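Ticket reopened. Same input as before:
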Amino acid sequence: MRMKAYLRVRCNKAYLATIRDFVKSRLADLEITGPISNQIVLAVDEACANCMIHQHQCDNYSTIEVVIYREDSTLYTEIKDTGKAFPLHEYQPQQVSDIIQSRGKGGMGISLIHKIMDEIEVQERRDYYVYKLGKHLGKTSTPLA
Amino acid sequence: MTIQEHPQDTYITLVPHGELDANSSVHLDERIQALIEQGQVNIHIDGADIQYISSAGLGVFVSYLDEVAEQGGKFVLSSLRESVRDVFVILGLDQLDNLIIVERTEDVPAHF
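Engineering reply: fixed in the latest deploy. New output:
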């Protein structure tokens, strides 16, 4: 039976550190450490920050839930969010040169998620959306530039 | 996030302590913006005490790169821990002309 770990936090950016600690700890329980753990923690942090900031405008009364589990050789994290859907799986990452020229700060988080994770899926449920991110274990992201 | 500052002859060294995420990176952002407005466009970041960086932390540097380059300046980052450096590498930000990553603080050029 696969064990799932759950964490629910308010949509307050101060809780991003709590999410990172939770993910890192759960990954360690699953004996996933080192660079691959750091990358998964980063991808989940980016996805949660995206939900908090863009889907909930950091509304402290809203919450998101993070779920982690392993199925065979794939590590899955799910972010359950009652905000409006964000088509994370369809997003076309911007070129870094375009981001630099725009002098903006956004756009790189989604790029990181796409470069780190192997599976990105958005599932629509009755009352919420699930952002499901899968990482094939034994594989770390390498420089793509 | 706390930030120490050490003015050098031709640049300024900032030493941030803590995590650079969507919640905490605003402090470094405000400080860098103020420095650029004062005409200080050569900025060395001693990253030995940056424990974590997300895209929000990267954005602090990337959003000012064009402006800094326009004025002939650049960022030099040194002493990054491997997990932090990897985030720059994943996005190819270690290949830019105006954002230089060096291994150690001793490797920071005297003039840049």
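Residues 5-136 of chain A form a domain with the Heat Shock Protein 90 fold (CATH 3.30.565.10). The radius of gyration of chain A is 15 Å. Please confirm and we'll close it.
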